[in-house]
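Sequence in, structure out. Go.
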Amino acid sequence: MLAVATKAAGWEWHVQGKHPALADFITLGRQCPVSRGLAIWIARSFSRLGSGAAPAEVAAGNRGNGCWQFWIAGASPDALICGCLAASTDSFGRPYPLLLLGRGSLPGWRECWSELPPALCSTWAAMATIAHSGFGSIRELKQAVAAVPAPVAPREPDEARAVSQDGRLRFRERQASDAKAIEGEIAGCLPKDEARQSALWLARHADRHAAPTAVFLGRCGQSTLLWLYARPLGPEDFLSMWSRQAMRGSHGTP
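Output:
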């Protein structure tokens, strides 16, 4: 495991998986219980895709926008884990997801959890750029990871909700069968508006729910998909998100 010297005070970065610029499975940065748990979740879930057509769809997702942005609640009140999970391959074309993860403290985020998408926007953007950029060496990759900016403090909910919703957007959602997961869709959402509109969607639930266990969001065609979890993640969650992201995102259909 290779250490990463970070410029973001109080935050640590971890990278694990395959990157198209490198030949081997990579692990950068110190692991934590959440990163280890996510690595196991990814490995077990990805293995269920089999060796047939599904990996080809994952590889196709890497050529499109197959990237889920996420945040996960930490063990202490201010602890937060954020990152990107990208469809990827190594330099030989062998598919496997790339996990980029940061962990640190963001005081007060549980009171403003619906506002995390804008607060994490720059961090997520830097991670997504790393996932889809070419690097000549592992050293260049480490330098890029070290330069990822830390999240900023989320805005107060009342200030955020004063922002008007674009009337062209259509919010859709459905409850999962276990009632502890909600899937949402923002149809017609432009990439530049994704963080703001995602916060508005989450604000619809903030008055009724405490901070969830995890939130994932990703671009699929002309829509943004969001998943809100109030329970631990399971293999079916990965498969459901991954199939929609790789298959819809790569073909550009809403």
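Check: The mean pLDDT is 78. The beta strands are 12-17, 26-28, 67-73, 79-86, 98-105, 170-175, 181-187, 214-220, 223-229.
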